[in-house]
Every structure is written in structure tokens, then in C-alpha cells.
Amino acid sequence: MAHNAAELIETPLLDGDLLRQTAIREIRAQIVTLPSVRAHRLSNTEFSHREFVLVRVRLANGIEGIGEAAVLGGPRWAEESVESIQAAVTRYLAPALLDCPAARPAEAALRMAKAAFRNNAAKGAVETAIYDALAQTLDVPLTLLFGGALRDRVPVLWALASGDAEQEVEEARAKLAAREHRDFKIKLGFASPEDDLRRLRRLRDEVPEMRRLIVDVNQAWSEADCRRFLPALQELRVDLIEQPLPGDDFEGMARVAAQSPIPLMVDEAAFTHREITRAGTMGCGSVYSLKLVKSGGLRALTQAARVAESSGMELYGGCLLEGSIGAAAHLAVFATLPRLPQGCEHFGPRLHVSEIVKDPLVIEDFHLCVPQGPGLGVHLDEDRLRDALRPS
Ligand SMILES: [Mg+2]
């Protein structure tokens, strides 16, 4: 029987049962605190406990999905804090998503975009939980919803960020001996450039088995600093320099990149697709750091990867020190990318003394393994979670 246009628009794209089964019934946001194995220092902050927001989305069929919204020691790396994320989720995103089917993630993203401006970490965690619940309902791994996995593991580096050269040398040696990490990222910018260079020189001299060495300046240098210290970084065989200048200094980054024999990586400068295009076409760097907290959703993260590549940048799997839940979410996308030449930095699961999942991610033979099984592939340990919840 012929349908008229109105009937066609009304015709569900998916089986009506699936839409009913996956209707969102409840969204919760809980603040979790986990102690780190050691203090972690960046150019503008330092912390020994990591706080994040656990988002739980329950569907009409009773299935619950989970997501993680990461911050770095308060609203310092970006503007969101665990308190603002919890408020954005419970007060604005959750009401907007009530009854939306998880089987329509594009509609969920649209509803969130209308309900709140930016708030990318909050949206990213909610969308992860929606996708997790949908993939569990369909009984498929989350990678399948992004095109299917092209790899089952991703090279993973470790960040040395205590600022204590002696400790960093020992930590690097231990990671190499355990065959967990052979590539390292060194956080710079909390000491003077001269002191930072002394740390780097000790690492290169005393850990010769170290393979790649990346430095992350977290926006702490001036253009003049770059001109002064680039030759020393080149002499130390640094492979990649991450965001040396402030995020909004696109022109400065482009000038430094044009001079530098070492590739620059764009991180804090580019959240939106338009910013990524601008950074790539202006020549601000040759590598882009993909992060859920910048893209605001897993679907947007896959799109960011395409935009960065088409703007001339290689891809790097960035993190904001997420634990196993957030790392598994990133891996669901990273595993499906045709090219990920720079590997990833999702060492966060090993930075905590304990985790809140029964099945923390596995790092072996210098790679992070993509979890198997339906959904994200990681599951809450309710006892551990109870112990880790921040008292309200
Ligand atoms: Mg960075």
C-alpha cells in the first residue's frame, strides 16, 4: 500500500519495540574520588587524588549504561569541575533526555546540544552511558556501533609527571621492565625550562631503552621560549611537542611549527570541529590529540578524527587521565579509526590505587587491550564504588 509523506515521516526507522525498550528512564551523576599512585603535576596544577563523575543511564528494559566525565584537579585544564558536571547532568541534560530512545543517539546528542552550551565532559559521559546501554541491549561490543574494530590493542605511552628526576628515571625503568610502556610523555612547564631540560637529559642518559619521548608543555611557554629551547629538545631527540603556547594563540603556534624540525601536537587549542580545521589549515601542528572531553561525545570524537586528518594532522589518542570506564569509551572509537599512527596515552587506569570496575583494562606488551564483550566491556564493582563515592 502506498504511503503518503506524513505516514512516511511517522514510520519508525527502527523496530518500535527497540525504541520502547531503550527509552531513557533515569540518569544519575555521582562524584567519585580515587587516590593516585603518586602526585601528578602539570604546568598549572598538581593533584594526588583524581575526581571524576560517574554517569549511569537506565533504560526502560532495565539495562544500565555507564560513562565517565574527567577533569584534572578542578576547573583548571578546562572550565568544567566535578560539581559543575554533576549539576549540568542532573539539572539540564537528564530532564532533556527523559524518554529519548538510546537507539537514537543522534537525537540524544541534539537534545543535549539544545539543553546546554559546551559542557563537553558532561555530555561525553552521558553519551557514553547511552551508547553502552544501547550496545548491551543489542548484545554487541560498542566498537560495532562505530563501524567495527580494526585493531584489538593500541600502543600506549606512560606520562612521567612527578617533577622529581630521580623518581622519574626509576618509574620509566620499572615500566620498561614490566613491558607495559616504552614510549613516555614528560610534563613540562611547572619548573623553569632549564630545570625541565635537565630532567629530560637525565631520562635520555639513564634510560637508553626508552623509545619515543613526547613533551607536553600545557600552554606554559612563550614563543620566545620555544625559539630558545627548541634546539635543546631536538638534541635530546624529542619526538613530539604538545601545545607549547596558550590555546588561543593560533598564529604563534603556526610560527613555531613552521620553524620546528620536531612536529607540534595541537591539544588545548582545538575542541570544536571548526577549531580543529583552523588549527590544521593554519599549520599550528601536524598532530591532533583526540579527547572525549573536547569533542563532547563519542560520535563527535569519530568526526573530529576525520576533520583533523582532512586538515592535515595525524591522530593521537589523548586522555584526561580517565580510568577504565573513560579509557574503554575512547578505545571504542580508537579501535575503529583507519589510522592511529601516534598510538594513545590511556595509562589512567594504572594511575589509580584502585578502580571502581570489576574488570580494569589490561596493558600488556606495551599495548592497551580493547575490552571484549557487549557494550563498553567494563562493569561496575558496586562495593568499590560505595567506598570511592565522595561524601555529599
Ligand atoms: Mg596535553
What does this protein look like?
- It is a single chain.
- With 392 residues, this protein is of the alpha/beta class.
- The chain folds into 2 domains: 124 residues, Enolase-like, domain 1 (2-Layer Sandwich); 232 residues, TIM Barrel (Alpha-Beta Barrel).
- It has 14 helices and 13 strands.
- Strands 5-6-7-8-9-10-11 form a 7-stranded parallel beta sheet. Strands 1-2-3 form a 3-stranded antiparallel beta sheet. Strands 4-13-12 form a 3-stranded antiparallel beta sheet, with no helix packed on it.
- Helix 9 links the parallel strand 8 and strand 9.
- The chain is globular.
- The termini are far apart.
- The relative contact order is 0.14.
- About 1% of the residues have low confidence.
- The protein binds magnesium ion (MG).
- Magnesium ion binds next to loops.
- The site of magnesium ion has 5 residues, from loops.
- CATH topology group of the largest domain: TIM Barrel
What is the approximate shape?
A: globular
Number of helices: 14
Supply Rg.
21 Å
What is the distance, rounded to the nearest whole angstrom, between the alpha carbons of the first and last residues? 59 Å
Mean pLDDT: 94
Number of strands: 13
Spans of at least 5 consecutive residues with low confidence = 8-12
Output the helix-strand order: HHEEEHHHEEHEHEHEHEHEHHEHEEH
What small molecules accompany the polymer chains? Answer: magnesium ion
Q: Under the CATH scheme, which architecture of the largest domain would be assigned? A: Alpha-Beta Barrel
Q: Which CATH first-tier class of the largest domain would you pick? A: Alpha Beta
CATH superfamily of the largest domain: Enolase-like C-terminal domain
**Largest pleated sheet:** 7 strands, parallel
Q: Tell me the strand percentage band.
A: 15-25%
Strand order across the largest sheet: 5-6-7-8-9-10-11
